[in-house]
Amino acid sequence: MRAITLNLNGIRSASSKGAMHWLQAQDADLICLQEVRAAGHQFPLELSLLDSHQTHWHFSERPGYSGVGLLSRKKPKKVTLGMSSVFDAEGRLVRADFKDFSAVSVYVPSGSSGPQRHALKRQFLDEFLIYLKTLVQEGRELLVCGDINIAHKPIDLKNWRSNQKNSGFLPEEREWLDRVLELGYVDTFRHLVGPEAAHYSWWSARGKARENNVGWRLDYHFTTPGLAQVAKNPSIYHEQFFSDHAPVMIDYTISL
Fold first, then answer.
1. For a Cys staple, 251 with which of 40, 125, 173, 233, CB 3.0–4.6 Å?
2. What single DSSP character describes residue 208?
């Protein structure tokens, strides 16, 4: 099973840059998308390139904002939108259950626009941690993909020293990721590439951040240990730019 996660920063914008054609060419079994920023009737025609997949969307009630999708080659037994939270109105999470495996596409709010938004991010993280614990307790194999909007370790962003007081690399956010791993999840990309390999999946639009590879690793595959043991071929695709994020891909030796 090939799984891809990608923050689109707008499905219409990303499609105009070739994202749907690229996703079709990857022949992925599972595609997790974030920041769709459109409703179904606004989707680009190019989305039809992925008609071989079952498509499941959780749209934001606010037009042109947030929204996530989960596309799978096999039809899920069950699909759940949201996590019974006030944040469900923002279209932050979609879950698909297969026979012995569940997949989640999630978009954690950014807290970089100011203290009020960061406080909302903290609230989301608190609720999401409880949700992740509940998932583990179900005893299923799990893959949680998405834009977490946190860099975990100094290796996960270029300028870590100057960002220690900025949302996305605050001590309490990094500790939150520690708690996710303590629940039994594996940061599978980091597990595969090793602790010293610098890889980034997001770059600021300011300056020449992408050109100079001054980035952050904000996009994750969190899995149960069983899936981590059968994971291989981690990669972040850089040859084309579909948004300010790059697709993160991992292959798993399992079937949906």
1. 233
2. T
CATH number, residue 87:
3.60.10.10
Residue 23 and residue 242 in contact, taking contact as beta carbons nearer than 8 Å: no
For residue 147, indicate whether it is catalytic.
yes
Domain count of the fold of the chain: 1
Q: Is the pLDDT of residue 113 over 80?
A: no
Residue labelled with tokens 């179904």: 40
For residue 187, give its domain range: 2-252
- Please write the tens of the pLDDT for every residue from 191-227: 999 999 999 999 999 889 999 999 999 999 999 999 9
Query: Which member of 147, 156, 187, 244 is catalytic?
Result: 147
Tokens of 7: 């923050």
36 closest CA partner among 1, 2, 4, 70: 70
